[in-house]
Amino acid sequence: MGILKEMQRTHARQVRAQKQAQAAAYRHQQQLRREAEHAMKAAQRAAAADERERKRLYVEARLAEVAADKSELQAHLEELDSLLSATLDVDDHIDFRKLRKSVSHPPFNPGPLGTPPPPPDWRRFEPPAPTGLGKMFGGQAIYQQQLAGAQQAFAQAQAQHAAAEADRQRRLAAAYQSYQQHCAKVEAEVAAHNAEIDRFASTFAAADPAAVVEYFSMVLGNSVYPDDFPQHYRLAYVPESRQLVVEYHLPTLDVIPAVREYRYVKARDEITTAARPAKEIKDRYANLVAQVTLRTVHELFEADRSGLVETVVFNGIVDTTDPRTGTSVQPCLVTLRTTREVFGELNLRNVEPTACLQHLNASVSKRPAELAPVRPVLEFDMVDKRFVDEVDVLADLDQRPNLLKLSPTEFESLIQNLFAKMGLDTKQTRPSRDGGVDCVAFDPRPIFGGKVVIQAKRYRNTVDVSAVRDLYGTVQNEGASKGILVTTSGYGAASYEFASGKPLELIDGSNLLYLLAEHAEVKARIDPSELD
Fold it and tell me: 312, 281, 421: which is closest to 377 by C-alpha?
């Protein structure tokens, strides 16, 4: 029985040990599981934190995008608002002296050719002289042989050096000649450039119309505008009246940003925009048109240090498509004629642009956003001299009539015919004592029509302002709605200044030639030289 009990105790110990081992294993497994769960939860918490950080950074990126859009929008608006002020600190004058070039040649650099090769050194050829026993056992004879060979080798080396030096000298001379030729070419190019500048300056000083137009084209070309501005223009110059006419292309309405504000809607993850009110767009566009007008006139007057321009005519047009018809149109949105004296009295840093245009008696579109046009104070094509330069096919013989050589009766008939072709009903005419023609005509158009007084002066010299004052008096005495003064010459700044804001229209020689060709199919010319 003792053995059986011992066996039972041993079995019991084994069972307890096994259960203890199993319990320990279970506890270890549970510990590992708990650790795994902790690790999983930690990973989940880290992932959630990472997701929150990712989302935060994404929102910040979207908000930064909105901030960039807002900043760009604000910068563009500020640029549009400062179009006039931005040019006031810029000197628009082009100094011809600064257009000249000077020559500055770099010194001649021969490179390796400038260093002659060293001559051969006899010490490298000379054999050692025999000494001691060498002299006694035939060393002297051997030395003499070696010396003769060394002298021959040295002579050959000297010949080779002389040949190499001669070749170097030839190549050095060729390189220097090429350098001189290059310098001469540069000097010739610079001389030609400076001669062209001098010729241009001379023709400009002489008030050559082509040179004047080119100079002021460069002035306007130097004016820096936003990239989406067209910056296209045409210029014409009338030396008789020192009048510069510019037809300037204005930007379209879409230059004003249609967006007023950018916002980021986090719930929908999208950037939305708020539209700019239509009235604000129209007001900003009207202000922009006024700024460009004043800026251009300012730049032209400021650039004219020679006093070649007394009067500037500005026609601001828009090259666009009529949304109603789909056709291309170029309505004139603003037109202005002003003199240097009147414009010089303005303080452009403090003016309100649209009010300033009213002060200058400019005609401005009431609805520029709708492309409602105004009638230019002077059509650009009326001063374009190209048609004056036409020559008759019969070589040197020009068959066009010279208006200055017409008789008073012929000139009167020509003027009457012209305005009849233009739609006026001429009722009365009488010859003028000054060689011109006066007539009272009627414009049959309703509202815009009425009585029109026309005076024509067949002059060679500039019409004095007194003639313009007389016309205005006649208009008032006749109860006319408009007065037209036509001349074969030109007008001065005082005449344009007096006519500004009054129902008067001044037509100079270039305008008259245009109107005759356009409406009466008469190609004429005005050449005072034939009267001398």
Answer: 312
